[in-house]
Amino acid sequence: MQLGMGDKKKKTFMFIRLVSAAGTGFFYVKRKSFKKITEKLEFRKYDPRVNRHVLFTEAKMK
Fold it and tell me: Which molecular-function annotation in GO is an example for this chain (predicted)?
């Protein structure tokens, strides 16, 4: 079975970095759906470099 030019599957999600607002450089990697989520993600998660929960904001993967 061969795939034609128009038969490619579209990307439905991408990987993003959640970077610590504490400025430690620590980050989490998360999948983000193109269809469901359009705004930037923000989570309050644990940063082991400062031993506390801080705000993590979305940044593009390099």
Answer: structural constituent of ribosome
